[in-house]
Write a structure and sequence with these properties.
Protein name: Cytidine deaminase
Radius of gyration: 12 Å
Structural class: alpha+beta
Distance between the termini: 17 Å
GO molecular function, one term: catalytic activity
InterPro entries: Cytidine_deaminase-like
């Protein structure tokens, strides 16, 4: 999908790619809240807790006082975001979720 994105949207895709690469994770995510603050995270897989990268990034934003998300980016090999990831973005104000490949190319735009 060839599409020109806003520089701020490119920024969260870059942040998501960076956290994925740094942690060697299957997915990386970044979110931007209503004030423009960004949060980047990888997924958590513990015996007692499993969260997707989007869920962790959104939880970081909410625990820092965010009331809504303007946008979220998920970098993954998957062809579509998980329903739970779409639900989290929807819960926080219907921001746009950008799905990107590990090379940063945009695969889709959701919500």
């Amino acid at each position: 999908m060839t599409e020109t994105l806003d520089p701020e949207d490119n920024k969260i895709i870059t942040l998501a790619r960076s956290v994925r690469a740094r942690n060697g994770s299957p997915e990386g995510a970044a979110v931007r809240d209503e004030t423009g603050r960004t949060y980047a995270a990888a997924g958590v897989a513990l015996p007692s807790l499993t969260l997707s990268a989007i869920q962790v990034a959104a939880a970081m934003a909410v625990s820092s006082g965010a009331k809504s998300l303007e946008a979220a980016a998920l970098v993954t090999d998957a062809d579509d975001p998980a329903a739970a990831d779409l639900a989290v973005v929807n819960d926080l104000g219907n921001g746009t979720l950008f799905l990107a490949a590990p090379d940063g190319s945009l695969k889709g735009r959701y919500i």
